[in-house]
Structures are given as C-alpha cells and as structure tokens.
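Review this chain:
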Amino acid sequence: MKDFPSCFGENGVQVADFSSSSGSTNRAAQNLVTCVYQCRLRGRSCLITVTWSKNLMGQGLSVGIDDNNNQCLCKVDIKPWLFSKKKGSKTMDVDSTKIDIYWDLSSAKFGSGPEPLDGFYLGVVFNRQMILLLGDMRKEAFKKTGAAPVPCNAIFIAKREHLFGKKIFSTKAQFCDDGQVHDLMIECDTIGINDPCLLIRVDRKIVMQVKRLRWKFRGNHTILVDGLAVEVFWDVHGWLFGTSLGNAVFMFNTSLSAEKLWASQSLCDPNSLSCSWSQRFQDSQSKCLGFSLILYAWKNE
C-alpha cells in the first residue's frame, strides 16, 4: 500500500518504482491494478490492498493488510507459477492468529488488464469470518472456506490502474463503493498538435473538456455522475513536456474537499513517494473523503 502516489508535484507524478530505460519493460512492469478496501479485523478497522499484476511470466496476485497505525500486519505474494494453478490458498500468521486467503480463477474471464472480470472469487478469512470477498462466485467461496455465511462489511475506498494507448485511454470505473460501473474514456492527441485538447467521457458522453492544454496542463474540475459530484484532477505535464513515453496522472474523487487534499499533496517532496495510503486514508476521513480512482495514462510509441 505504500506505493500509492502521495505527491503530485511536477516530478511527483512519475512513478519511480516502475522507472526503466525500456518502454516495453515499463509496460510489463506497470500492467497492474491495485484496489484498497476498508475492513474489520478483530473488531478494529484495517486496510486490505489487493494488487492484480500481469507480466511476461504470467499473472500474479498480492494481498497486504495494514492496521490504522500504518503497521503492516501481513502480506502475501502469489507468484505467477503459483497463480497458474488457478485455485489455491495460503495462510498468514498475525500475532499468533491465522488469516487465510483463498482464490479460484479456474473459470475467470479477463479483459485487456490483469484484473478478472467475472467467474472467480478471492476471499480473506479470519476466525471463520469472511472479512473480504471479491468476485461473483460467492456461494463457492463460502463452501470452500467454511466461513460463516454472513455478508462481509468491506468498503471499496480506492483504486489505482495503469492505462496504455496513443490518444485514447479506456477503462471501467465506479465512483463509490457500491456504485454503477461506467465506461470511462480519456482522449487526448498530443502528437503534432499545437493546441491539444483533453476530453473525458463517461458512457460515451463528454463530461469534461479542457482546451489550451499547454496552459492548463494541471488542474481540476467537478463533474456529475449518477447525481454524485466527482472532482477530477489532471496532470498531463509528462505528456506535453516529458519524453515520448511519458505518463499523465488523473484522479477522480467523490469528496468536495478533495481539492484541499490535492493541494496539500503538491507540497510534498516531489522525489519522495514513501507516504503511505494508510496515512492518507486516515487523514481523508477527517475531510469526509470518499472514493478515489487514480489512473496513470501511458503513451505508446
């Protein structure tokens, strides 16, 4: 969870953890989706981070659990050669107690990214209670884990994703925990264009347009989705003034106080990305911060 971007300065949008001299290597390393969930563990709030990845060796999965004091309780990495078995389980020890992770992707369907779309389950079980359950195979998950058939109270609070394209970047997005899934498209042609324009579409409808982008390469704007105010922040400095393989960063946030959070992030050391998502989430609670979607858009050659 500590690799979520905490600074949005001119250089802060660059993800140092994934830097590489090769564009193809960059793409392989960055083909991942990270989701953060607020859960209850031993009567206390905790954050579970699930990262789906895909590289030349295959698909992988990582699950980490942090408490609200920013202490890592446990983390497990399911490597591609284990993930290839499509189903399995692993046990983690936390303070002399056990947390079990079960997964079954033998029937999973994938899109262009590393995150499964349906036909799977991923469950995190503690003391026979399902504290996190992902996927549509809920019945199979409860049967396999032996957990009590009680709905878990996990809340989806953040997602980070890497997108690739030449001028169009598309993904599926929801803007709150149980919100409707929308088609989200970011469109911007910066090659050979003197005055590029930025377009953002939700379900093919233009919800935001930024002209004179070279003067407005960083900013924010509020859009409405499902009657919910969503604050959109963009930083396309890397597209316009960086290398040909530069990236842009977009954040979609459901809190009206998100602008204050964004502004405070830019005061961080732009070369430091060590601030944890756990701490950001605790700070955001006092600001009534809702769901956050962070997108890295990488230009293909």
Q: What stands out?
A: The longest strand covers residues 44-55. DSSP finds six helices and 19 strands in the chain.
